Amino acid sequence: MTLTIARPPTGTGARPLGRRRRRRPPVGLLLAVAWMLVVVLAVLLPQLLASGDPLAGVPALKLDAPSAQHWLGTDAVGRDLYTRVVHGTGSTMRTAVLAVALGVAFGSLLGLAAGLAGGIVDVVVMRVVDVLFAVPAILLSLALITVLGAGTASVAFAVSVGSVAGIARILRSEVLKVTTSPYVEAALVSGNRPLRLTLRHVLPNAMTPLFALAALELAVAILSVSALGFLGYGTRPPAPEWGAMVAAGRDSLQTAWWLTTFPGLAIVATVLATNRLSLLGRGGLR
Predict the structure, then answer these.
(1) Torsion over CA of 278, 282, 284 and 285, rounded to 10 degrees?
(2) What is the pLDDT of residue 262?
(3) Is 109:198 a contact under the CB 8 Å cutoff?
(4) CA atoms within 13 A on the CB side of 90
(5) What is the third-level CATH fold of 72-281?
(6) Among 93, 143, 195, 229, which residue's Cβ finds the most Cβ atoms within 10 Å?
(7) Closest Cα to residue 248, out of 269, 270, 226?
(8) Residue of 112, 115, 107 lying closest to 176 (CA atoms)
(9) Where are the compositionally biased (Low complexity) regions (predicted)?
(10) pTM (whole model) above 0.85
């Protein structure tokens, strides 16, 4: 009886286990990163992208269609729309980032207090969170702006209140999960003080999910800030702001479509890019 040993195939079809093809980043992720880099550059150094004055206009060139001279056309007073979109990025993004920062700060304090204290504190905080969830965020923002008055700071604070409830509930659940972990119980038995235990063990491990949530809240904040700017509660004209620019061109949709189209596309692209990047915080490279 002859025993035949089959040899592994040789050639390009066989690939060693240690030489697997590297996974390339998705095209959508690369586009999102590229767009957000442009947005950051427009916020920090808008003169590099558009050196003109966003407030200066030439009445003789009003409502010019997009051309080689004016890439996105001009508005009703002859101002270059591309320059205004670039310089308006800073106003919209700074307000949205401030709103998210305030929401994360307030929501983290509430969630941390509810998770650590428990008892009546937890009940009261969660009832406040339930009330915030019951009111639509845009209506709550409008009510607060009515009391505080229009302006960038008022818009940032009003938008931040809408994100407090979700952040507080997420952090509370994470704190409850972390505080029952064996390593936290071991640290408590070892004689660690509550403040040291919270700052060194509980808070760093409970804050991890907030990074992805903050990216999602940034996308919501951009939409909310633009919506409030559209209603006239944001940056004072003639300063450029995406929502206000969309509102300025709504009466000229048939004759000057570019007045609303390009600022609207900037809002949509930034929101989509932010949502795509938020997958990184959840470990998703899809």
Answers:
(1) 60
(2) 95
(3) no
(4) 16
(5) MetI-like fold (1.10.3720)
(6) 229
(7) 226
(8) 115
(9) 7-16
(10) no
**Across-strand partners of 74?**
80
Collect the ranges in the chain with pLDDT lower than 70: 1-22, 181-201, 281-286
pLDDT at 285: 44
Size (the chain), residues: 286
**Residue burial 140-160, b: 16+ Cβ < 10 Å; e: rest:** bbeebbeeeebebebbbbbbb
235: tokens are 């940056």
Burial class, 263, CB count within 10 angstroms (exposed 0-12 / middle 13-18 / buried 19+) = buried
For 26-42, b/e burial (b = at least 16 CB within 10 A) is: eeebeebeebbebbeeb
Sign of CA dihedral 228, 230, 233, 237: positive
The tokens for 101 are 């920062």
Distance, in Å, from the CA atom of 168 to the CA atom of 17, rounded to the nearest integer, reads 46
Q: Which tokens is 210 given? A: 């907030």
